[in-house]
Design a protein that fits this description.
Order of helices and strands: HHHHHHHHHHHHHH
CATH topology of the largest domain: Farnesyl Diphosphate Synthase
Number of helices: 14
Number of strands: 0
CATH superfamily of the largest domain: Farnesyl Diphosphate Synthase
Number of domains: 2
Structural class: mainly alpha
Distance between the termini: 32 Å
Length: about 270
């Protein structure tokens, strides 16, 4: 029995499914060893993301917690200290966040340093943007924000592919992949983000068309990224979120809000065909 299976919580896939269906399905395409590695890594990132996203926690509190979490991840993880710093908001936090220690313990020894480094950097970047109240004014700001919330996940996964499966990919293209998915999310949730959180992730003088161009430019990098992957299960894993992003973008360009559940299911079938 490998390290991963021993420490991988029996209910981790349930938590993953509840937290993100978009990520749950492609993870099921991976072989067992890699499935556990990627699931635990993703749950770590998601635990931090939920702090940044929380609608009932003040920005000052978020900033303080995220900075402290970032510092905690620079050394061997102290779960007691982590739960202490979450104490003021403990009742508001979802299970995935409260169980960060479980997800870190589930990371295999050969990849846990990759995950901790990425999570440390992500928490720091999110803290920075919380403090700035997500006030994105320029393309550089948008690049910086999308790097921390999505590009970094691409880099982390690329490092995992290399470490666990010997698959080498390009770091900048991996960032483009993450940014492209995030740009599609920003386009899809633009109104909701503004109405519910009073936040706009769109640079000051940009039109919706500029944001479409930004998404296209980054998804083109994602398409390029795919060409260097020569392992079938990793290819399938990467193919699905990208196919869904392309379809969603096309639908929005045609004036639709998003793609239907049926189109999602058809895409899941399509990517597994060849």
């Amino acid at each position: 029995m490998t390290m991963t299976q021993k420490n991988f919580p029996k209910d981790a896939m349930r938590v993953l499914k509840e937290t993100s269906r978009t990520f749950y399905i492609p993870i099921t395409f991976l072989d067992k060893e890699l499935k556990h590695t990627v699931a635990s890594a993703y749950l770590v990132m998601r635990a931090i993301d939920e702090i940044e996203d929380h609608e009932e926690v003040e920005n000052d509190t978020k900033h303080t917690i995220l900075m402290q979490v970032s510092d905690l991840l620079k050394q061997p993880f102290d779960e007691e200290q982590y739960l202490q710093l979450l104490a003021p908001v403990k009742n508001k936090m979802p299970e995935v966040t409260l169980r960060l220690g479980d997800w870190l313990r589930a990371c295999p020894e050969n990849t846990v340093h990759i995950v901790m480094n990425s999570a440390h950097e992500m928490a720091y970047g999110m803290a920075k943007w919380v403090k700035a109240d997500w006030n994105i004014q320029t393309k550089e700001d948008l690049d910086d924000y999308t790097y921390y919330v999505a590009g970094l996940v691409g880099v982390m996964l690329s490092d995992i592919w290399e470490q666990s499966a010997g698959v080498k990919t390009d770091r900048d293209l991996a960032i483009g992949y993450g940014r492209g998915l995030q740009a599609v999310n920003i386009l899809r949730n633009e109104q909701e983000d503004y109405d519910e959180r009073g936040v706009s992730f769109v640079p000051d003088d940009w039109t919706r068309q500029d944001l479409f161009d930004y998404a296209d430019e980054n998804l083109a990098k994602a398409d390029e990224y795919m060409k260097s992957i020569n392992k079938k299960t990793i290819l399938l894993f990467c193919r699905l979120p990208l196919a869904l992003a392309h379809k969603t973008l096309k639908a929005m360009k045609n004036g639709r809000e998003k793609i239907s559940r049926q189109e999602v299911e058809e895409t899941v079938e399509e990517v597994q065909k060849d």
